[in-house]
């Protein structure tokens, strides 16, 4: 299956050859890190307004082929 990722800045990425039953959200974040250089701990993925948990599968999040997931960055507090 294929999943699209869109950032709040309007950037788009396509992640393909995924299995919804076995692929965890953390794996999506790892693929995005390879493509963008954005570290895992600063990535937050959202689908239909819900925050996706790292160890949830795509299937359990309701993500199907062709879905678009939103990427937002968690910035440090500076403390």
Instruction: Compute the average pLDDT.
Output: 93
Category from helices, strands and their pairing: alpha+beta
Helix content: 10-25%
Distance between the termini: 41 Å
- Tell me the fraction of residues in β-strands, as a range: 25-35%
| Largest beta sheet: strand ordering | 2-1-5-3-4
Q: What coarse outline follows from CA principal-axis ratios?
A: globular
Description of the molecule:
It contains 1 helix and 5 strands. The chain has 79 residues and is an alpha+beta fold. A 5-stranded mixed beta sheet has the order 2-1-5-3-4, with helices on one face. A hairpin with a 4-residue loop joins strand 1 and strand 2. The longest helix is centred in the middle third of the chain and has 12 residues. It is globular and about 30 Å long.
Topology:
Layout lengths: L2 E5 L4 E4 L9 H12 L6 E5 L2 E2 L16 E6 L6
Parallel strand pairs: 1-5
Antiparallel strand pairs: 1-2, 3-4, 3-5
List keywords for this structure.
79 residues; alpha+beta; 1 helix; 5 strands; 15% helix; globular
Concise account of the structure shown:
The model has no long low-confidence stretch (mean pLDDT 93).
């Amino acid at each position: 299956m294929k999943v699209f990722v869109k950032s709040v800045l309007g950037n788009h990425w396509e992640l393909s050859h995924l299995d919804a039953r076995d692929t965890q959200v953390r794996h999506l974040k790892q693929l995005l890190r390879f493509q963008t250089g954005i570290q895992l701990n600063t990535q937050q993925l959202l689908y239909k307004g819900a925050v996706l948990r790292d160890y949830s599968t795509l299937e359990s999040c309701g993500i199907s082929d062709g879905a678009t997931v939103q990427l937002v960055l968690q910035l440090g507090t500076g403390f």
